[in-house]
Amino acid sequence: MIKNILCFGDSNTWGLNPVTGGRFDESIRWTSQLATKLGSGFNIIEAGQPNRTLVNHPPYNGSLSGVSYLKPYLEEYALDVIIIALGTNDLKKRFNLAPECIALGLNNLINDICDFYSLNNQHDEKPKIIILSPAFVRCRGPYKHVYEGAECKNVALKEQFKNIAQNKKIIFIDLQSLVHVSLEDGIHICESQHQVIAKTLYDVVKK
């Protein structure tokens, strides 16, 4: 039976190229690389969306909050694994959010997932959840002022996410210790870092 894996994230899941501003092709995106590594027994659902947040509905970009956009995927697919890779956009200066507030958004999202399966009774087992902490955001390049003040929140946000994963007994992967953001914009990861994420997730999923 094919296993369905939902990759639910922001622009680094979507595959934004920090050099061109376009999208990396399927040979580079970590989601696509993960699909290739896992093979025919797995279906990878790419659900990355630039500007997606855990807490806010960003102005100028429509309603991109994770909570709003997750439910349709839960309804459409019989999911075995959900990979959540969010939190970077919540660090934007205009939101003025403490790491604890961003983490509360993650906690609420996980609760929403659990509630959905409990209320709808769609599976004997709920899907396994994997949390990716955001990579270490740098204030540089075109996003320097957008993310002003974010650098001092990086470590605290990671620890908050880790604590939630421990409390919920779900898998946590610390991207701050595994990958680094590009020197071009301080937010997005380059081709080689997509390879690292794909390899790390492959090892975790196969285990």
From TrEMBL:
Domain SGNH hydrolase-type esterase per the UniProt entry, residue ranges: 7-180
Record protein name field: SGNH hydrolase-type esterase domain-containing protein
InterPro entries cross-referenced by the UniProt entry: SGNH_hydro, SGNH_hydro_sf
Example of a GO MF term: hydrolase activity, acting on ester bonds
Organism field: Pseudoalteromonas fuliginea
